[in-house]
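Structure request: peptidylprolyl isomerase, Manacus vitellinus.
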Amino acid sequence: PHSSLCTVKYSGYLGNWNNPFCSYGHGKYPKLMKLGRDITLWGLELGLMSMARGEVARFWFSPRYAYGPRGCPPHIPPDTTVLFHVELLDFIDSEECDLFFELSDAQKDTFPLEKVLKVAATEKEFGNYFFHKQNFGVAKHRYKRALSILDRSCSSEAERSQINTSKVPLLLNLSLTYLKLECPERALKYGKKALEMDQGNVKALFRCGQACLCMREYNKSRDFLTRAQQIQPFNRDINNELKKWAR
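Returned structure:
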């Protein structure tokens, strides 16, 4: 979709595949780029929109889809067909998010729940993207934005249950992100919020245990971890944490 953000590697060539006139995304952490804003070459936009995640493709763009009758001096002569080698590493469709954030507060309140959940899921996907890039500050912001989207009045218990089901993974992700940011108090706060919605959530108990351990609240840590172990007695991560107490 036109409003997608993607991470992409590409190189552009004139006439052969030997010497690129442009190259992008070959560093360790290619950034997210928005079609139509960061990627404006019409042929490259169309090409990316036709590709699947992880796909590698080669394109020949006629002048109409590339640099036109004027070219791009001094590198691209007028009326030149260019070659592109493209790899689509990842993409996130942000269309629903873009539309949602243009609404007024009153309009957001009446936005269909199904679409609200989809917008929150997309924000979570952005958070996961930045988390895996170890950009924990931006990941935290995205997770919180997703939570704020889900803060709305519910018309029924079923609707409340759906929203809570979407909130719990976000709270767990925030708890882990704050552990990575070395803010165990915040990590504990979000772990406890997840437990309020899902008392037997093993990940929430584990996160709370880890946070308390970082805060040197050893008894509390052991309590959380023991509760988690009772639910999942063969969970290796939990057992490894508890082994520390046996030394």
